[in-house]
Amino acid sequence: MRETCGWGAGDPLMTAYHDGEWGVPVHDDRLHFELLVLEGVQAGLSWRTVLHRREAYREAYNNFDPKKVATYTEADADRIMKHPGIIRNRRKIEAAIENAHAFLAIQKEFGTFDRYIWGFVGGRQRVNHFASFKEMPAETEDSGAMSKDLKKRGFTFVGPTICYAYMQAAGLVNDHLTKCYRWKEVQE
After folding, report:
1. What pLDDT band is residue 188 in, cutting at 50, 70 and 90?
2. pLDDT score at 2
3. CA 55, chain centre distance (Å)
4. pTM above 0.70, yes or no
5. Domains annotated on the chain, with CATH
6. 3-state secondary structure of 111
7. Positive or negative torsion for Cα 140, 142, 145, 149
8. Residues marked as catalytic
9. Measuring CA to CA, how many Å separate 43 from each of 36, 72, 95, 139, 161?
10. Are 53 and 85 in contact (CB under 8 A)?
11. Checking CA distances to 61, which of 67, 96, 175, 184 falls within 20 to 30 Å?
């Protein structure tokens, strides 16, 4: 049996996420937007709670199309608040809409959000060498810089800890434990 990080064990959806997505370098703008929104939703909650509602979020937010989300009105926010499959937090819903506007502005300025966001790690995945989760930070200098710049550009729910979780999810950093079979596989 292959050794893993262990945090997905016992939950098929978490295992599939660990094995197939977490730490894999993302270069698709739509997926960047999805992960940013979901990491913001996670604030104060577990990733498991959010992951098990991911499909409902995709339905509620037009598959995380930032162009569509940026057109949402207060009526759309009300509609999303009534969606039975999501975590109903008005501030987080409004943040997703505000963040869609800021996301599109970054795309316009840089050509793609991907080009902008990978700049925080010099265009290459940072590969960490953690033997246990006790060694892993909640935030880093890079996530702090990212948070500060995203906030300056109009994003909300993007503190340094949220940004670091997003960096892990989007593969800007490889935080699979060195004993995990995915540690080598996700390296660019």
Report:
1. low
2. 87
3. 15
4. yes
5. 12-185 (1.10.340.30)
6. coil
7. negative
8. 17, 39, 47
9. 11, 22, 12, 14, 9
10. yes
11. 175
